[in-house]
Amino acid sequence: QVQLVEFGGGSVQSGGSLRLSCEASRDISSRGCMAWFRQIPGKEREGIVGINGYGSTTYVDSVKGRFTFSRDNTKDTVYLQMNALRPEDTAMYYCAAARPSSSAPCWIYGSDLLQPGAFTSWGQGTQVSVSS
Q: Which long-range contacts link 5-10 to residues 24+ away (Cβ below 8 Å)?
């Protein structure tokens, strides 16, 4: 079972920045697919950004130009740098991962990287609150 642990949530004012991090098991982060999702109580989990095992990244339109996803394979960690935060970004943020196969990196492409069903491992979440 892959373990994922998120860090970095908190409360900021509109326009502020936060950086989330997610530490993953060694056999996931470099060749696996990883993604960030967020969820508001009573609503479906929304994919924000995902990356596959070949380094291809997909962002949801609402965060393009404001959020940046990066991966540090030496630390088995992925990051989500969030700038120009808005009150509507308030949510619980989750890190997710899908394992690579034994013969190839994880190949989930495009908008499928933003689908919760594509991922098998989830962190416990970290709360982000943005006040106006």
A: 5/123, 5/124, 6/93, 6/94, 6/95, 6/123, 6/124, 6/125, 6/126, 7/126, 8/126, 9/93, 9/126, 9/127, 9/128, 10/127, 10/128, 10/129
